[in-house]
Amino acid sequence: MNKKLLRELPKVDDMLSDARIANVAQTISRYTLLKAIRNVIDKTRQAILTGQIKDERLNVDEMVERVLELATDDSTMNLKPVINATGVVLHTNLGRAPLAPSIIEALKGIAGQYNTLEYDIKTGARGSRYSHVETLISDITGAPAALVVNNNAAAMMLILSALAKDKQVVVSRGELVEIGGSFRVPEIMQQSGSILREVGTTNKTHPRDYENAINSEETAMLLKVHTSNYRIVGFTEEVSLEQMVEIGEKHDIPVVYDLGCGLIDHFSDANLMTEQTVRGSLKSGADIVSFSGDKLLGGPQAGIIVGSQTLIEKMKRHPLTRALRIDKLTLVALEATLRLYLKDQSALTNIPVLNMLTLKSEIISIHAQQLFDKLKPAEKWCQISLEAGKSQVGGGSMPTVELATTLIALKPKHISVGVLQAKLRAYTRPIIVRVNNDKLYLDVRTIQQKDYDYIAETIIDLLGEE
Ligand SMILES: *Cc1c(COP(=O)(O)O)cnc(C)c1O
């Protein structure tokens, strides 16, 4: 029996010349097809040998189907677009900030061409890649100087290495944070060769704690870290940036602020009011402020350092700067992002992240109704309702802020919520949803209106085939 089935196993060449496989050879490479064919033949052989396949005859059709599936899967991009229906605006696993159309245009213009990355077009001499964004960043934030690296973790690494190697850095015990993806303040300090001087306690730190820790010989910096992803509440006391600046000035020690989220301004919007801003931190007198490009700034992954000209010059000369230097694609996306801030008040309209965060709940409920109407045909197989809910900022930002939203709740009748969720994830353009209390939720805050039809069709399709 076993032997008979083994003899029926097709040869690689037989499968290659199967009409259905030959048919896709135009679009899928021979390498990919061969890999899939060998994989399926091996797996089938194993299944025969272990007795998992006990049929009279080998189902070669099924093998061909499997090859086509594997090869198609293998020949599409691994990194692919998804629809974020979770309502988490800065979803780190889903790539944080989606970029505005004008940024995409700028990327398209540069990606396939030679460009002026390090070329001074006026003199024909070598230029600096950083020059494309320095003035823009200064104009937008009010900082005297700026430097850009790969991400904010890299920015902190550079700041500490360039300004505090073998010296003490004073930090409050309430601010020794861990940000997702293993950015931990004490560890990054150790890596940079600076010495952590913890002061205060978890819940309370006083100005005198900093004063007492300062030693003019050994202290290189007072560091404030924005506790981006958590808040200490209750019996607490924090030394404000202004107070730290006062202490720093008295002892002639620079104050560095790891701000994280990079909200440039409040733009007079209530949803943004509780977060600290880049402009505000510089106004308060911080010597250096660093933040991410892909959090509340709404641009590409980058680490942006702003502040004192002298300190930033020192960082530019440090060898790490070369190792952390950003790519032309990031630079062009960042330049295009920054330009959106120069138009009056348009940042809230033009930067997708800020737009989603400041959407009024009346608008959201209208949008939810639109998607709900499109989903109506699915009511045969599913209970659908609108529910009041909360969206999150995400990206380890503004953890206590909950934004009122309207959710579309789905409760399928014939399949479990988990199965529907998995099927939506497996679709050509995956739809990522929230699940809670045996219901599946779509939060329209993070869904683009042009995707409503795709979402409705996909859900109707999936439920209808059950
Ligand atoms: C997010 C964050 C970081 C890490 O920034 P990346 O750009 O993700 O490297 C560091 N510090 C703070 C306070 C943050 O919020």
Short description:
This protein is of the alpha/beta class and 466 residues long.
Overview of this protein structure:
The chain is globular, with a radius of gyration of 28 Å. It has about 475 residues and is of the alpha/beta class. Helix 4 (about 30-50) packs across helix 5 (about 60-75), helix 8 crosses helix 9 (about 185-190) and helix 18 (about 360-375) packs parallel to helix 20 (about 450-465). It has 20 helices and 16 strands. The chain is about 40% helix and about 20% strand. The strands form 4 sheets. It has a 7-stranded mixed β-sheet, with helices on both faces. Strand 12 (about 380-395) and strand 13 form a beta hairpin. The model has no long low-confidence stretch (mean pLDDT about 95). The longest helix has 20 residues, at about 30-50. The protein has helices at about 1-10, 10-15, 20-25, 30-50, 60-75, 100-110, 130-140, 150-165, 185-190, 205-215, 240-250, 280-285, 310-315, 320-325, 330-340, 345-350, 350-355, 360-375, 415-425, 450-465, and strands spanning about 85, 90, 145-150, 170, 180, 185, 195-200, 220-225, 255-260, 290, 305, 380-395, 395-410, 430, 435, 440-445. It binds pyridoxal-5'-phosphate.
Labels describing this entry:
466 residues; alpha/beta; 20 helices; globular; binds pyridoxal-5'-phosphate
Please write out the topology.
Layout: H1 2-8, H2 12-16, H3 19-24, H4 30-49, H5 60-75, E1 83-84, E2 88-90, H6 101-111, H7 131-141, E3 145-149, H8 152-164, E4 168-172, E5 178-179, E6 183-184, H9 185-192, E7 195-199, H10 207-213, E8 219-225, H11 241-251, E9 255-260, H12 278-283, E10 288-292, E11 303-307, H13 309-316, H14 320-323, H15 328-342, H16 347-350, H17 352-357, H18 361-375, E12 382-394, E13 397-412, H19 417-426, E14 431-432, E15 434-436, E16 439-443, H20 452-464
Parallel strand pairs: 1-14, 2-12, 4-7, 4-8, 8-9, 9-10
Antiparallel strand pairs: 3-11, 5-6, 10-11, 12-13, 13-16, 15-16
Bound molecules: pyridoxal-5'-phosphate.
